[in-house]
Design a protein that fits this description.
By secondary structure, the protein is α/β, with parallel strands linked by helices. The chain has a single domain, classed as Rossmann fold (3-Layer(aba) Sandwich). 42% of the residues lie in helices and 16% in strands. It is built from ten helices and twelve strands. The chain has a four-stranded parallel beta sheet with strand order 3-4-5-10, sandwiched between helices. It has a two-stranded parallel sheet with strand order 1-2. Helix 6 crosses helix 10. It starts with a helix and ends with a helix. 35% of the residues are buried.
């Protein structure tokens, strides 16, 4: 996601600095290295954070050391790796008057918990049922605190299920890249439950556009949902993937997981009205572009060997 946001900002003639972990894999930003400044450091190190913030006007906080599923296994680590370093970031940022706002990528898929109404708007109660969502919501509350006490301006983006090029096919976050990886390798796909759970999938370049809109917004100190506004079941997603890839997908349904929310779809009227943002890329179009990228990368790797 960070590489796409950097591209969008560069197109708008912003100077971009990326802060990432030491010895980070630079594959996703290889094409940007001559146009951006890269600082490598430790998110837990106060000196590294202070250095990264020097001369900065806007902070776009995308860093996360965990994802929903592993957070169940180690909620203590989720807290230590995400909330505490962000507190240090906010403390440093609040001392720098030049900083105009922080834009935080929260989770529209987890902070609300089991929905009481569909679609979910920003006023919906927040009762996350996974530690990842609790951490995201905790950070939102701390951002609010630093705004009220120290005047640090902010925009929180509650992003739904983002997908797109450069996502890790063998990672643990994002069902679409995982499915594409398995289709590429002709591996049977395992679906927990009956495949009827619904999610709100949003293409990564639409997400990056929402971040640019947040940088340029007159409004601040508010929360926006960022999603497609449409619910797609896993079974519908599999059908679309068969159409896009031209491959017959082998699926095995297993027992559902207790923590899976049955449906999540975001209402996006607020960001449409206040920032003039709306998703431009349909799910089928986004899947097609992502699949073409996946195949191209696979062919490039095969040619090397």
């Amino acid at each position: 996601m960070g590489s796409h946001i950097a591209e969008s900002l560069l197109k708008k003639d912003y100077q971009v600095r990326i802060f990432d972990k030491i010895n980070v894999n630079k594959k996703n930003i290889d094409h940007l290295v001559n146009d951006i400044e890269l600082i490598e450091g430790d998110f837990n190190n106060e000196v590294d954070i202070k250095t990264a913030l020097e001369g900065i006007d806007y902070i776009i906080h995308l860093a996360s050391a965990t994802s929903p599923q592993p957070s169940y296994e180690n909620p203590v680590y989720d807290l230590q790796a995400n909330v505490i370093p962000t507190l240090c970031l906010l403390a440093q940022a609040s001392k720098i008057k030049k900083i105009k706002r922080i834009i935080f990528s929260s989770s529209g898929g987890t902070v609300y918990g089991i929905p009481q109404t569909i679609p979910i708007d920003e006023t919906h109660p927040t009762f996350p049922i996974c530690p990842y969502g609790i951490s995201k919501l905790s950070i939102e509350k701390y951002i609010y605190y630093f705004n009220k006490i120290y005047g640090l301006n902010y925009i929180v983006l509650r992003i739904s299920n983002a997908y797109g090029e450069r996502q890790n096919l063998h990672g643990i976050q994002g069902i679409i890249p995982v499915l594409l990886g398995k289709i590429l390798e002709n591996i049977e796909i395992e679906i927990w439950g009956d495949g009827k759970i619904c999610r709100d999938f949003i293409y990564v370049k639409d997400v990056s556009d929402s971040v640019v809109k947040s940088v340029e917004a007159e409004y601040c100190n508010t929360i926006y949902n960022v999603g497609s506004g449409d619910a797609t079941s896993l079974n519908e997603l599999l059908t679309l993937l068969e159409e896009v890839t031209g491959e017959k997908i082998r699926v095995r349904y297993t027992e559902k997981r207790a923590f899976d929310i049955p449906v999540n779809v975001l209402k996006i009227d607020k960001i449409r009205k206040e920032l003039g943002w709306k998703p431009r890329i349909s799910l089928k179009e986004g899947l097609k572009t992502t699949w073409e990228y996946v195949k191209h990368e696979s062919d490039m790797i095969a040619q090397r060997f």
